[in-house]
Amino acid sequence: MDLKAIPQRWQVAGVVSFYMGAALVMVFVNKVVLNSSPDLPLLFLLIQLVLAVVLLHGAARITPKVEIPTIELRTAKALAPVTTVNVIGLVFNILCLRGVEASFFQIARGLVLPLTIMVSSIHGRSLPSLRVIFAAAIVSFGFFVGVSPDSAARSWREAPSQMSIIYGVLSSLFIAIHAVLIKYSLPFAQNSTIQLAYWQNLGSAIMLAPFILFQGELAKLAELYHNPNWNAEVFVWGSLITGVFGFLLCVAGLLSIKVTSPVTHMFSSAARSAIQTLLGAWLFNDLLTRNRVGSILIIAAGTMFYTWVKSVETAPPPPRAAPKDDVEAGLLTDMDLHDQVVDMQEKKAPPP
């Protein structure tokens, strides 16, 4: 179906709903599988990566818009840094989700925005504006509110472990580094986000496989297989569902770049955090304390403020009216506007 034939408002609503739905399914099905098989996190992640590669091959046979890159050693070496950072971030991400409640997951990874601002500033050797620093401070404050002890907690056992919170912070750090590396990696993938996604999934799977052997997860899988209390169907179906929805998230991300604005994306992310918290409390009986609710609200507010600040700071200035008899000045104004639009498009394009 041609997106141009659908009204703009329905395009935005459809893409946002699709993205939010796929993201929520990923988190909750991941959590169900990790609760059922907590000793197999890396194997579970490997299956998702392999499925993503297989589905990309299948999509390439259906539509020419999905191009599978040619495997070249030179390209693999050039993309090794971004692939390494990607797989490390994924491992910390799934270890964090294994150790925290679904409703707490967004809080544990609440430092993504401040760390991304910090890494980008260090890499670009430039200081962000005061408003951007203030937005990062709001989000950081929300994170520390969420991880601080709450008198409403019924027992210390219901509080997330310090190791899980550390995993969340490390996951956020590698997501931030990954966001910076994406910009410099795209040219090696012919500036195609789909080709880069293929390289990252394939490379991450290859890098992850040896660690599954070192961790002894195959032996643990054999033990669980002979355990009558283990529900293998949860692991198998959960792996298939998350693999498919992980692929759909990639598609949703590409559609989001084409149809929605950064402001819309941030508002949908805030709404997803609220829905995820409520569903976590309903499906898993997660503990909702004042600190957790306040943390989610503060992080969402800081993120939306940051989005507004960036939209204001990167907005192109109004065009100067050129005199009617000055043809050369009018031509220069049009060229300046064209350059600004191109720059805006490059800055808005997020990683897949």
From TrEMBL:
Keywords, comma-separated and alphabetical: Membrane, Transmembrane, Transmembrane helix
Broad class of the protein's primary localization: membrane
Segments traversing the membrane: 12-34, 40-58, 78-97, 129-145, 165-184, 196-214, 234-257
GO cellular component: membrane
Pfam family, one: TPT
Domain Sugar phosphate transporter positions: 20-306
Membrane topology: Multi-pass membrane protein
Location in the cell: Membrane
Protein name: Sugar phosphate transporter domain-containing protein
The organism of origin for this protein: Lentinus brumalis
